[in-house]
Structure formats: C-alpha cells, structure tokens
Amino acid sequence: MGKSKFLKPDITTSQALTAAALSYTTTIARAFKLDQINFHASEAITEDITITLDAKGGANYDVVLRRISLVAEQDAVYKPDFEANYQAGDEIKVQCTKANSTGTIYCTIKTSEV
Hints:
Number of helices: 0
Strand content: over 45%
Shape: globular
Distance between the termini: 15 Å
Number of strands: 8
Structural class: mainly beta
CATH architecture: Sandwich
CATH class: Mainly Beta
Number of domains: 1
Oligomer: single chain
CATH topology: Jelly Rolls
CATH superfamily: Galactose-binding domain-like
Order of helices and strands: EEEEEEEE
Helix content: under 10%
Radius of gyration: 14 Å
C-alpha cells in the first residue's frame, strides 16, 4: 500500500518589481514534499527566476533546483523532475530579478506532507 499524500495549504507571496526584486524563503518547519511552484506576473516580464533549496545543514548544502528565464512572458511552472522530499528545517527560496519589469510577480508554492 502506498503512502497517503496530504496537501498542505498553499504558500503564497508576491512582489511589485518596481519596488524590489522578489526574495522569499518559506518557513515550513516540518518534513514536506515539494509538489509544484507556480509563478504569474501581472504583465509580460523579462526576468530571471531562481528556486533554491535552503538546506537545514547550512549554506554549504544549499542547491539551486531550477533557473527559469522569462522573456516577455507572464507564467512559469516548476515541477520537480523527481520526488523531492525534504526534512524539517529545509526551506525553499524563490527569487525573481527586477531588471526589466514594472509589474508584480505572484508565487504559489504547493507542498504536501510526507
């Protein structure tokens, strides 16, 4: 019999790129599975998105999970290529540059319990 999967409430954040770049780190504090991260911009943007594992073990163990370059686009989705289970203390950091855009970037992080 397989493990049951219980979705956790979505984690959402947003940032007006006219004011600052997006830099957000979750505070999940429990073991979790990363299911998907959705990005939506209020207008077509040309920016770089970075998704990083902020590891419990410290900066020496952090790893970039994905870099996404948007060119005149509004949407991006990151879905791990493998089952990504993380332990309590691991967090996910999302960043979006603000070099070229005036819109707002919205981010939804979907996780489930392991």
